[in-house]
């Protein structure tokens, strides 16, 4: 009879599945969270990417590929010739954002 009770208890323990072990403690010093990279300033790489015909100037048509540039095109075009030079493009950083 003792053997039957032992078998029943062992079967019940087995059917219940493994017992959860102690939970692992979180690491004491989690890795630092890196700050998001700041927006890149308009630079030669951006200018070159937009200058599809490689003439060293950005037309309104070329600027249309960048919605933010479209909004600031007139403000950036300091000589009002309808084109942006690399210097005008780079100087947009110095201009306050449009309201």
From TrEMBL:
<dbReference type="InterPro" id="IPR011992">
    <property type="entry name" value="EF-hand-dom_pair"/>
</dbReference>
<dbReference type="Pfam" id="PF13202">
    <property type="entry name" value="EF-hand_5"/>
</dbReference>
<dbReference type="InterPro" id="IPR002048">
    <property type="entry name" value="EF_hand_dom"/>
</dbReference>
<dbReference type="InterPro" id="IPR018247">
    <property type="entry name" value="EF_Hand_1_Ca_BS"/>
</dbReference>
<feature type="signal peptide">
    <location>
        <begin position="1"/>
        <end position="15"/>
    </location>
</feature>
<feature type="compositionally biased region" description="Pro residues">
    <location>
        <begin position="19"/>
        <end position="35"/>
    </location>
</feature>
<dbReference type="GO" id="GO:0005509">
    <property type="term" value="F:calcium ion binding"/>
</dbReference>
<protein>
    <recommendedName>
        <fullName>EF-hand domain-containing protein</fullName>
    </recommendedName>
</protein>
<keyword id="KW-0732">Signal</keyword>
<feature type="domain" description="EF-hand">
    <location>
        <begin position="64"/>
        <end position="99"/>
    </location>
</feature>
<feature type="region of interest" description="Disordered">
    <location>
        <begin position="16"/>
        <end position="50"/>
    </location>
</feature>
């Amino acid at each position: 009879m003792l053997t039957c009770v032992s078998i029943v208890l062992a079967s019940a323990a087995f059917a219940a599945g493994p017992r959860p072990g102690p939970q692992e403690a979180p690491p004491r010093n989690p890795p630092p969270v890196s700050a998001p990279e700041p927006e890149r300033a308009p630079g030669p790489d951006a200018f070159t990417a937009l200058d599809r015909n490689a003439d060293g100037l950005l037309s309104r048509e070329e600027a249309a590929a960048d919605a933010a540039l479209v909004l600031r095109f007139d403000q950036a075009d300091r000589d009002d010739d309808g084109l942006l030079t690399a210097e005008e493009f780079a100087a947009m950083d110095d201009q306050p954002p449009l309201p």
